[in-house]
């Protein structure tokens, strides 16, 4: 019977999980309710005309509140409208020169119709740098570090128009950050940018400026979940683990070696093996590289306290400048937070239930690879609002968690640790109905 029950539970979990998946992934819209104006804007400023083209400064601004671009960084592409070539670049480079055999003298930097541009790496010589360049394509999120949320490079374009009437704007912009997920709109000519000198005593302006806006959608990124949530509380001994197979299933038959056990004598050699860029996660029931644990720790008269722990299960990956977005109705009265930074996100002005959390610089802004140091933690103190506060019905647990901009898989609300001797629940949630019908179905299935 116990076996049957556990089988049933997993079936129900699969059904529920699938359901959540469908709801989440049917929207192809790039709209993020927690960051409705989030976008990456690419701006081209022509700063001089040349005999056969122009010199422009291209700047990428990451205007997203909490989504950053991590290593190995952004890749920008476009399609030239005519037969343009790139003579030269500073602070960035085209990954492929293409066929420049038509040029008898010094060949251009890139002759491709669809150039692909990447940032230069840190440590680039000064004469090849441009302001805000050379961070290996990494862009901070706007809230975490606006001074590192932009990147620029300079580009000299030939065989193009040489006046603002004859220049044709590049088409079909593409942006990888670093994987898929971004969709870019069409370039639009906008008011020329004004540049101020450092002392603000002189202003100059671009000869012509155009903008392109790119937005992110997790649907287009087609990413499997990379993070899950587990829960516990002082009032109930049960630790509710991450749902099984949140990020994938352990399958030794189809994916041998897809994860490693920490006790393995081969751990060190596997971790340092050739393919350093692919993830290598610790074998767990959830198989996620990241787990967020929310523990309701203490109850005071006027306050209550939560401990949040983020654990890295990937042996090959350090998450620098990680961030977490959490939603809970009591965030409007977050009184104190230890060792993390916090900023409330209020996309709709009035509802103040979402915060972004990130590490303290040089202390815990890097979540290091799996191991004894592979976690960061914080405690949060909330002031109770007597009108809404309760430990009943899992109210003390978060509604939604995002890690580095991607949703984390939550345990189903019915599984949240509940108060001992919780009375008969008169309110039957929709989820319960689904659970019941799903288990009825499962029973039928099991006995068929
Ligand atoms: C892009 O983001 C900026 C900054 O939040 C905002 O001002 C602008 O309107 C956004 N653009 C689009 C097209 O959403
Ligand atoms: C082109 O430049 C002229 C002046 O040189 C200016 O009047 C005009 O508005 C510019 N057009 C565009 C599209 O920037
Ligand atoms: C832009 O990209 C789309 C899809 O990749 C392609 O069908 C279209 O031909 C491209 N347009 C140009 C001008 O290259
Ligand atoms: C173009 O982009 C720049 C930089 O993001 C921004 O300041 C400017 O307002 C944008 N212009 C328009 C018309 O969107
Ligand atoms: C996969 O292998 C590990 C260790 O060898 C074992 O503990 C686990 O039960 C296996 N899982 C399956 C689904 O066979
Ligand atoms: C992660 O950071 C630690 C400490 O800085 C370093 O020793 C380790 O090599 C890094 N691991 C990876 C995979 O970059
Ligand atoms: C949201 O709540 C936090 C914590 O009490 C507070 O610091 C912040 O000012 C509030 N934000 C808004 C927009 O009301
Ligand atoms: C915090 O809680 C107090 C009392 O419960 C309430 O009056 C106040 O409006 C809350 N603060 C915010 C920013 O919502
Ligand atoms: C603790 O919570 C779990 C999960 O909701 C529940 O099954 C269990 O009965 C609770 N324990 C007590 C002592 O009420």
Explain this structure to me?
InterPro entries: COB_C, COBRA_pln. The protein is built from four helices and 28 strands. The protein is mainly beta. The chain has two domains: 181 residues, Immunoglobulin-like, CATH 2.60.40; 183 residues, Immunoglobulin-like. Strands 1, 2, 4, 7, 9, 10 and 13 form a seven-stranded antiparallel beta sheet that branches. It has a six-stranded mixed beta sheet with strand order 15-14-18-19-26-22, with no helix packed on it. Helix 1 packs across helix 4. It starts with a helix and ends with a helix. Bound molecules: 2-acetamido-2-deoxy-beta-D-glucopyranose (9 copies). One 2-acetamido-2-deoxy-beta-D-glucopyranose (NAG) binds next to loops. The site of one 2-acetamido-2-deoxy-beta-D-glucopyranose has 6 residues, from loops.
């Amino acid at each position: 019977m116990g076996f049957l029950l556990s089988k049933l539970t997993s079936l129900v979990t699969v059904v529920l999980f699938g359901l959540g998946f469908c709801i989440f992934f049917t929207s192809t819209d790039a709209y993020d309710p927690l960051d409705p104006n989030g976008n990456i804007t690419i701006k081209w400023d022509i700063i001089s005309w040349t005999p056969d083209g122009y010199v422009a400064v291209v700047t990428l601004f990451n205007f997203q509140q909490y989504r950053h671009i991590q290593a190995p960084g952004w890749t920008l592409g476009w399609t030239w409208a005519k037969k343009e070539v790139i003579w030269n670049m500073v602070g960035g480079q085209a990954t492929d020169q293409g066929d420049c055999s038509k040029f008898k003298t010094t060949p251009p930097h890139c002759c491709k119709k669809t150039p692909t541009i990447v940032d230069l790496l840190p440590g680039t010589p000064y004469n090849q740098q441009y302001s805000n360049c050379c961070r290996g394509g990494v862009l901070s999120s706007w809230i975490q570090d606006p001074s590192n949320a932009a990147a620029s490079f300079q580009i000299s374009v030939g065989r193009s128009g040489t006046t603002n009437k004859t220049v044709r704007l590049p088409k079909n912009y593409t942006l990888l950050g670093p994987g898929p997920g971004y969709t870019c709109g069409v370039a639009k000519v906008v008011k020329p940018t004004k540049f101020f000198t450092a002392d603000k005593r002189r202003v100059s302006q671009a000869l012509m400026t155009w903008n392109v806006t790119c937005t992110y959608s997790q649907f287009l990124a087609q990413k499997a979940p990379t993070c899950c949530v587990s829960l516990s509380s002082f009032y109930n001994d049960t630790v509710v683990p991450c749902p099984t197979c949140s990020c994938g299933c352990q399958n030794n038959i189809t994916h041998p070696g897809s994860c490693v056990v920490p006790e393995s004598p081969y751990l060190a050699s596997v971790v340092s093996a050739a393919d350093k860029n692919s993830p290598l996660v610790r074998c767990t029931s959830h198989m996620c590289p990241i787990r967020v644990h929310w523990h309701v720790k203490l109850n005071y008269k006027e306050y209550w306290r939560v401990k949040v722990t983020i654990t890295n299960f990937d042996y090959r990956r350090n998450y620098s400048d990680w961030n977490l977005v959490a939603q809970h109705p009591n965030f409007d009265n977050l009184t104190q937070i230890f060792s993390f930074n916090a900023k409330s996100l209020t996309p709709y002005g009035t509802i103040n239930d979402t915060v972004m959390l990130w590490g303290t610089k040089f202390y815990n802004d890097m979540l290091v690879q799996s191991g004894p140091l592979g976690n960061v933690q914080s405690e949060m103190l909330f002031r109770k609002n007597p009108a809404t506060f309760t430990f009943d019905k899992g109210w003390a647990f978060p509604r939604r968690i995002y890690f580095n901009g991607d949703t984390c898989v939550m345990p189903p609300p019915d599984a949240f640790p509940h108060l001992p001797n919780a009375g008969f629940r008169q309110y039957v949630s929709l989820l319960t109905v689904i659970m019941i019908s799903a288990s009825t179905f499962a029973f039928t299935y099991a006995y068929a």
